[in-house]
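Dear all,

This email documents one entry for the complex benchmark we are building for the journal club exercise. For each entry we list the sequence lines for every component of the assembly. Then comes the predicted three-dimensional structure of the complex as a token string, followed by one or two observations. Please use this as the template for your own entries, and keep the labels exactly as they appear.
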Amino acid sequence: MTTLRTLRALALAGVAFAIAQGGAMAQTVELNLWSELSAPPESTVLNKAVEMFNAANPDIVVKHTAFENTAYETALRTAFAGGTPPDIAEVNAGSNAFQYAQSGQLLDLTDFVTPIEAKLRPGLETMYQYDGKSYGVLWGLKVGNILYYNPKMLEEQGVDPASLATWEGFMDASQTFLDAGITPIAFGDRDQWTGNHYFNHILHGVLSKDEYDRIGLQTLDPSVTSDIKWSDEKPVRAWELFKAVADAGYFTPGYLSDDNDTAAGLFFSGRAPFYSTGSWGVGMAKGAGAEDVALTLFPPVADSPEPTAIVTNSLLFTIPSTTKDADAAKRFLEFLTSEEVQKLYVEENFDLSPYNYDMSSWTMDPMLRQVSDLLENAQNASPFLDMIEDVQCMQENVNEANVAVLTGDLSPQDAGDMHQECVDDLRASRNW
Amino acid sequence: MRRSGRTKFHIWLLLPAFTFYTVFWIVPAVVAFLSSFTQWNGVSLASIRWVGLANYVELFDDRWFWNALRNNLLFVAVVLCAIIVLGMTYALILNARPRGHSVFSTIFFIPIVLSSVVIGLLFTQMLSPTVGLVGPALSALGVPGVAEHQWLGSRDTALPMIMMVYVWQQLGFAILLLLAGLQTIPNDYIEAARVDGASAWNITRHITLPLMRPVLTVVIVLVTTNAFLLFDLVVVMTNGGPFHASEVLSVFMYSEAFLKGNPGYGTAIAMMLFVIVLCVSVIQLALSGRGQKAA
Amino acid sequence: MFKSLPLAVRIAAYFLLLALAVSIVLPFLWMIATALKTTAEISQSPFSLPAAPNFGVFIDAWQQGNFTRLYLNSLGITALSVTGLIAFCSAAGYALAHFQFRGREALFLYFLAGMMIPPQVILVPSFKIMATLGLVNTYWAVILTYFAWVPFAIFFFRAYFAGIPRELAEAARVEGVSEWNIFTRIMLPLAKPAMATVGIVYFIWIFNDFMWPLIYLNDQSLRTVTLGMMAFQGSHAALMNLKVAALLLATAPPLIVFLLFRRQIQNGLIEGALKA
């Protein structure tokens, strides 16, 4: 008898629960949000933002699923291909987002984004505009072309940090260290993207913004053409300068076999005075507990047309066209751009904001402030090359080629010729 | 009645394993096979196009395919020879039961229980000229020129280093199997030969090795299959670099399908790999079968 | 027998044995010594023993890497997968060894063919199946994948059951024992050693697996030891001692299982490979 009563009670409770659920379901919409922000501090900030949004909007429940970085690309591609993407998707701004836009899988958000653009820093539109339409809102801003140095080691060798303002000065300083028996530049190109970034920044210094943007975008946008070919003097000069660093012996001995983390470790433990990585290096320095760290802009060549220009990178929050509720999703996107959330992001994340809020009262790491000043004083900003060039040409001719140039398998001119051939073939195959 | 009940029973026994294996292993493999005849961007199924044999034709013109195939064959050949020769040597030594043989065989087996990822990370660290063990050791020994050598970052040494680590990892397993094979050989044979005055070398050459044939076949087939499918170790240690120098087929496939966004082309490479492994295994088994009949 | 060999051969043999043993033990000693040193010590004197061994590094690595969570995930996934595999594959192996039916040999070959498929090939289609089933980012995605790792276990159980005389089951049938009871009451108890071997071997394989957790278990709370350890390597760039400590923490379980069950693993693998 008791068993029966218990069972009946359980059944009733179950029914009641189901009704309650049904009632709640009728009023709220649940939005799935996917991102690759799976590690603190980035994940913490986004989770906080989601919580804040859910609390302020009782009719919407955003559910965040964080993916491990390397797996995210596979997961998202497969979900899109299978027709089951999330309601809101974080993607890398630029070419990565454009491939989804190209195949019609993202909502055109032009009307929604236009008012938000008013508070955006200038020059960042290339990261989310494709074919004249806008496909998402930016979250966070990273600066790529930064050189970190160890001020204590520079002082010991009598090198003035101001001499790092040009590439030539940087090379002279490197020679000073080499002469003193210290290999100057911590670098590990095992995973290829580090060499890609080096080449990226050297090239960016050699070209003007217009030239730089066009030479990349010509593979993504049918309407863009480039006066400069990869086989021309300027891009080849960038390869030559890159190769010269290795030939001079400035890179740490494991430069082809170490990964980026190992190289960073060499710099943070005071074994090499120079290391180049993006603004995320500020957070890495904190994590490593390194104290003797200072930064400056990645040195452009002395004859650079725009020596203070910046290379940037950002994440884009997009709405896949299969979303459950586009209006609810837009409300979340707008919330992400609010001052409240951006302040949270900057203060906890060692990162900058793509929006023009007054940051003077925000709590920021001094080094991050310095990056922010570099950004304020920059002539202009461009995305990373890998964000504005089609992966079909980028992977082989920058990622793989940069290693080949260092090993001598490709001469700088060969690298340029191959790259141009790929671009020509790609445009021809698409009838552009 | 019972007869029919019994015939049904084996179906129930087989059903769970068959279902999981078919749904989660064979069906994906068949889908992969079909997608090797297509071209698409990996993002939108709307972009999928049936291209027939185009991917396979393209493979034959792709110098990086031949490069990966060459590396793969070289890898398998070197690693197989090394494992068989070293494995047999160590098995013969251990079979003679020197003092401490069981401690040695336990130690030799340790690498096989570690994951390739851990082993890869460990050796990458040790071989690095900046943070490693090998560089400082060489400079302490008075060869500072070699101390800065990038073992994994140089065209000449990257693949050989991976071969070495692979042999290190797999040798214990081969020793174990070969030792077990040696222990099944009846002692009488050897004793009889010894009484007849045969030398140790002649006993090994004319009695032990022929009797070991079946075990050797198993070891050869297992090592060959595993070595062809090599992936983790390369990805962790060199990522196929520098500039394709240590790229094997599975890594080449991964980079085409996932990094360059050509899933159709990638699966075509994978299918070639499958066919090669299948052929090599069948040939090896056929050869050993014929040898057995002849003997 | 060893003593009867010439002295030179014996010396050479010992040299070879010691060389291989040292090459295996040395990296472990290096890892332990490195973990116990300070970062400054590591770069200045890579060979020396730690001046003041810092055992706290393991606790730091454990806490920062959230190894409690990682271990619970890994052990849970491994235990469930191994139990399932033993259940399904012992049944299938028994059926293939003791029952006569049409297509038996073909079915056996079908089960073996999976060994030759490079797992990277089926990555994308498998992911699609799991996504369709809504299982991505759940433990089930990896567990179901491991349930498909049947070839070796079926191969092994079939060989083992083939060694059990059929008369045993026939006698029970005459007594009127049901097929189910013959399998569970007579055959499975006899197959305990085989189950132990398969269990241990698969424990090591599944615990060490990296690729499937990498693509299916993205949520940080679901990560396995191998996955978490990789992420740890990336986020502690400059702290060599912590990185190595995490590496040691990740190798511990398979190593302990191996040392505890050494005999069973060795004998099991030998049988499995030799009964071909």
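Observations: The mean pLDDT of chain C is 86. The radius of gyration of chain C is 24 Å.
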